[in-house]
Amino acid sequence: MDDPPADMLTPLLMRDIESSAIADAVVSTPAGKAVTHRVEGTIIDFYENNEDKRWEAVLVLRLSLTEIDPASRAEKTLFYKTYREVRALEKNNPHDLAHQMSKAMAAVSEQFISDIKTYFPW
C-alpha cells in the first residue's frame, strides 16, 4: 500500500466525527449543503522511530475547527491544537507499525472530538 498518510488519515477522522454524532453531516467537499464548520489538518509527523531499543509509531497532527457563516461566508477559527501520540511497537514489523499507528489515530480522533464538542449547539 503506497497511499500517502493524508489519504489514509482523512477518511478515518471523517468516520470518527460522523460516528460521534456532533454534526448533522460530514463531507469531504461541500455538495449542496450549507457548510457551517470546516476541519483542517496538517500532518506534522508520521513515522516509525527506531532509534532506541523500543521502536515506536509516532503521529503528530495539527487540527483546527473553523466556523463559516453560510450567508456571508465569513470565517472564524474556533479551535486550533497540535496532537501527539506515540505508541510502542510490540514487534518490529510493518504489521505492528500499522496497528499502532491506527491506535494513535484513534486516540487523536477521540481527543479532537472531545475538544470540539463544545463548539456545536446540538
Detailed description of the structure:
The protein has 122 residues and is of the alpha+beta class. The chain has one domain (5-20, 35-117): Rossmann fold. Helices cover 32% and strands 33% of the residues. The protein has 2 helices and 3 strands; from the N terminus they run αβββα. It has helices at 5-20, 94-116, and strands at residues 37-49, 56-68, 75-88. It has a 3-stranded antiparallel sheet with strand order 1-2-3, with helices on one face. A hairpin with a 6-residue loop joins strand 2 and strand 3 (75-88). Helix 1 packs across helix 2 (94-116). The termini are far apart. The relative contact order is 0.20.
Keywords:
122 residues; alpha+beta; Rossmann fold; three-stranded antiparallel sheet; 2 helices; 3 strands; 32% helix; 33% strand; elongated
